[in-house]
Amino acid sequence: MAELTNDFTWSKSRHEKFAECRRAYYYAYYGSWGGWGAPAGSEVRELYVLKQLSSRWQWAGSLVHDSLKQLLRRAQATGQFAPLEEVVARTRQRARAQWSASREKSYWRDRKPVGCLVEHEYGDPVTGEEWKRIFEEVVAGSLEGFYRSPAFARIRETPRTDWLTVDELDSFAFEGTKIWVAIDFAYRDRDGLVHVLDWKTGKERGVDQTQVGIYTIYAQGKWSLAPEQVVGGLVYLGAGGDEVAVRADPEALRGCEAKMRESIAGMKALLEDPAANRASLRQFPQLEDPASCRRCPFRRPCGRL
Ligand code: SF4
Question: What residue ranges line ligand 1, CB within 6 angstroms?
Answer without folding.
Answer: 21, 23-24, 286-287, 293, 296, 298-299, 302, 304
